[in-house]
Every structure is written in C-alpha cells, then in structure tokens.
Amino acid sequence: MLDRLANLFRGKPVLVRGTGKLAEGHSKKVEIGDILAGGKLILLCRVDGDLHALDTRCPHDGGRIIDGPLVEGKLAICPLHNYTFDPKNGQVVRGSCPKATVYKVREKDGDAEVWA
Ligand code: FES
C-alpha cells in the first residue's frame, strides 16, 4: 500500500497529448516509455468528465485490460474472464481479485500529465 502511494508522487509526469479528444465513456491505450525497457502500457479512461489512468495489466490472472468503449460507460474490462474495474480507483467491480494499479493523472488544456 505504501509503495503504491509513494509511486503516485514519485518522479516526473509524462505528457500525453490530445487527451481532450477522448470521449465520455471511452478509453484509449497509451505507452509510457519503452515497453521493452520497463515502460508501461496504461489505459486512459474518461468517466464523468474526468480522466483516469489504469495499468492494463489485469491483477487477476495475467490478462490485459482492453481499450474501447467502457462497460456501462464507466468500467474497464479484461476479456480473459470478463472482470471489470473502476478506472477511478482500480477496484474490481465484477470478479474477485486485488485492485488494478491506477496512476495519478492531471489534465489541462486538452493534454494530460501522467505519473506512471
Ligand atoms: S485475467 Fe483478467 S479477468 Fe482473469
């Protein structure tokens, strides 16, 4: 828990351009850094007007949370066993497993800063 909190405030944010175009209830995958060199693949999700960043690694059994329209306009899904996650906090909504990793994100003027 403390590691996750520390990660939220560690390091510099990465700028992701054009996030203002992401429609309500949709999500988009974004690479943060080089995936082959320790980078991350995150999912930016627009819920209730706000942008949220969720790690695409599913905490259940090695699947990947996918992009596209969110379930009921607000939940990210891993298609391997159809577990759904709340992008606001990573909490599993349908299924039984630990929370998905979320990252701090701040949106300004149509772009976003992500601490991943
Ligand atoms: S691995 Fe993602 S739901 Fe099972």
Describe the structure.
With 116 residues, this protein is mainly beta. The chain has a single domain, classed as 3-layer Sandwich (Rieske Iron-sulfur Protein), CATH 2.102.10.10. Helix content is 7%, strand content 41%. The chain contains one helix and ten strands, in the order αββββββββββ. The strands form two sheets. A seven-stranded antiparallel beta sheet has the order 1-10-9-4-3-2-5. A three-stranded antiparallel beta sheet has the order 6-7-8, with no helix packed on it. The model has no long low-confidence stretch (mean pLDDT 93). It binds FE2/S2 (inorganic) cluster (FES).
Quick overview of this protein structure:
With 116 residues, the chain is mainly beta.
List the helices and strands and how they pair.
Blueprint: H1 2-9, E1 14-16, E2 26-32, E3 40-47, E4 50-55, E5 68-69, E6 76-78, E7 83-85, E8 92-94, E9 102-108, E10 111-115
Antiparallel strand pairs: 1-10, 2-3, 2-5, 3-4, 4-9, 6-7, 7-8, 9-10
Bound molecules: FE2/S2 (inorganic) cluster.
FE2/S2 (inorganic) cluster (FES) binds next to loops.
Annotation keywords:
single chain; 116 residues; mainly beta; Rieske Iron-sulfur Protein; 7-stranded antiparallel β-sheet; 3-stranded antiparallel β-sheet; 1 helix; binds FE2/S2 (inorganic) cluster
- At the first level of CATH, the class is Mainly Beta
What ligands does this structure carry? FE2/S2 (inorganic) cluster
Characterize the overall form: globular
The biggest sheet amounts to: 7 strands, antiparallel
Helix content: under 10%
CATH superfamily: Rieske [2Fe-2S] iron-sulphur domain
Radius of gyration: 13 Å
Q: How would you describe the oligomerization state of the chains in this entry? A: single chain
According to DSSP, the number of beta strands is 10
Give the N-terminus to C-terminus distance in angstroms: 16 Å
Class based on secondary structure composition and strand pairing: mainly beta
CATH topology, anyone? Rieske Iron-sulfur Protein
Number of helices: 1
What order do the helices and strands follow?
HEEEEEEEEEE
Per DSSP, what share of the residues sits in E-state strands of 2 or more residues?
35-45%
What would the average pLDDT be, to the nearest integer? Answer: 93
Q: Return the domain count.
A: 1
Which runs of at least 5 residues are low in confidence (pLDDT < 50)?
none
Q: Tell me what the CATH architecture is.
A: 3-layer Sandwich
Spatial ordering of strands, largest sheet: 1-10-9-4-3-2-5
